[in-house]
Amino acid sequence: MTTFPPVTNFINGKNLKSEAQTMDVISPISGETISSLPLSSHQEVDAAVASANAAFPAWSGMTLKERVQIFFNYRTLLQNNIEELTELVHIENGKTMGEARAEVLKSIELCEFAVSMPQIVTNEIQEVSKGVECRIERKPLGVVACITPFNFPNMVPHWTIPNAIVLGNTVVLKPSELVPLSAMRMAELLTKAGLPDGVLNIVNGGKEVVEAICDHPDIKATSFVGSTRVAKIVYKRASANLQRCVALGGAKNHLLVLPDANVQMTANDVVASMAGCAGQRCMAASVMVGVDKVQHIIDQMVVEAKKIIPGESLGSVISKEAKERIEKYITEAEAQGAKILVDGRNTNVKGRENGYYVGPTIIDYVKPEMAVAQEEIFGPVISIIRAKDLDEAIGIENSSNYGNAAAVFTQSGALAKKVMAGASAGMIGVNIGVPVPREPFSFGGWNESKFGVGDITGKSSIEFWTQNKKTTSKWNPEDKRDWMS
Ligand code: NAD
């Protein structure tokens, strides 16, 4: 398997070797060590923040139109290097080449939104009384930070960094320690695209880096994407230190399937939502609530799930621990009386015997109180709960602590609207299993799937990464009226 030089930090445009203890970077498709990364210290965060601070005046002093030019160049570089970037995601994260390519394409779409900012972020101006005008300008915040998870090594950094930077901020990024390679490549390509030194800095590592970011007095805002457990820690700590913070957490997405749903489309969509990216998507289907008589749809789901070939149309999960955790959930559900219709335990991929593969798994007759019905499994596993009617199904969805996505499969507009109104989730799908809002719409969940105001992408991100400056001016000294009149 391809190996990569040891990962460094990226501060003030330079790759800086860290003196810190290192950790292996392991490819989950083979279990082999492919690189190492430093578990950097808070002093390295200080250096990155100092670099971002020094770069801020010149960068924020440019016009928005000038700043986006770099992202036009960068978008071309992403397109020109798509094969290599795809392979990098495949190797470090384990998802299939097709899924990895889709991820990079999504990063390109995110850049396209960022370069459209001059068309969207127009300031406001009004003559509020004779000769007196009020204007509102959007100004950057200063140094900001982004903390990202393992499951989209290329895309999730692109949720925040292009928007934050084109809006005039300078950034410190802390990628997941499990997948640092794509983020480092992002920095290389942005440098090639013309991004000045210090505008983007990367500090690799784990908890110590995150804590140093949350505590840093010069960081004005932090975005976090990861598990709910850590989202809560980061949100509380960053907010306590007076940073603006949006922290996206985990998920337990419910798909409500009604008997009138189109059988083939529903079976395909539910299975693709559950097994795509090996179930390691915060938008993945995790619970299917089958309303009334849906056996014919479940039978078709089983047919579709059995067509999936681990190692070909299904990637690996991220680690040995993840594989063990997922398989334990399945075993516990079975012991509690649930019925395993398709069993992904003990999956072996020929030639990749040391990779971390779990096959697609469908568990039927799950009870709402079971762990597989309540907790985030983050693997290619779906739990089916049977409900007698739609009200009961919506009640099951509502009882989840999470609230990222929910979806309904039906041919009835009236029943679909009932779910759209009643589901307690931030992103709703109607006959769509992974209802990710595409740019310029914003991405973000409800309940314990997101902490903070606003969403992380799209138009909502403009609010997050900027502050309004309100200026009231009067240039008519000859007019003796009070400016408030
Ligand atoms: P994670 O929470 O373990 O890690 C996320 C980041 O937090 C990483 O950079 C990691 O180094 C850091 N971190 C981990 N433990 C920490 C601690 N104790 N203190 C401080 N920092 C810590 O998440 P993950 O396993 O990398 O990613 C999977 C999770 O992310 C899933 O729960 C998934 O649902 C969630 N996720 C959510 C969204 C969303 O939009 N809501 C999107 C992608 C992933």
Question: Gist?
Answer:
With 485 residues, this protein is of the alpha/beta class.
Oligomer: single chain
Low-confidence stretches: none
- Gyration radius, to the nearest Å? 24 Å
Mean pLDDT: 97
Strand order across the largest sheet:
14-15-16-13-12-17-18
The major β-sheet equals:
7 strands, mixed
- Strand % is 15-25%
Q: State the share of residues found in helices, binned by percent.
A: 25-40%
What does this 3D model show about the protein?
The strands form five sheets. A seven-stranded mixed β-sheet has the order 14-15-16-13-12-17-18, sandwiched between helices. Helix 2 runs antiparallel to helix 4, helix 2 (64-80) crosses helix 7 (181-193) and helix 10 (263-275) packs across helix 11. It has helices at 42-61, 64-80, 82-93, 97-115, 117-120, 155-166, 181-193, 207-215, 228-240, 263-275, 295-306, 320-335, 371-374, 390-398, 413-422, 458-465, and strands at 9-11, 14-16, 22-26, 33-38, 124-129, 132-140, 143-147, 170-174, 200-202, 219-225, 244-248, 253-257, 285-291, 339-342, 361-364, 381-387, 405-409, 427-430, 450-451, 466-474. Strand 1 (9-11) and strand 2 form a beta hairpin. It has 16 helices and 20 strands. It has 485 residues and is α/β, with parallel strands linked by helices. The protein folds into two domains: 9-249 and 453-470, 3-Layer(aba) Sandwich (Aldehyde Dehydrogenase, Chain A, domain 1), CATH 3.40.605.10; 253-430, 3-Layer(aba) Sandwich (Aldehyde Dehydrogenase, Chain A, domain 2), CATH 3.40.309. The structure holds nicotinamide-adenine-dinucleotide. Nicotinamide-adenine-dinucleotide (NAD) is lined by residues 147-151, 156, 174, 176-177, 206-207, 210, 225-227, 230, 233, 248-251, 282, 376, 378, 404, 445, 449.
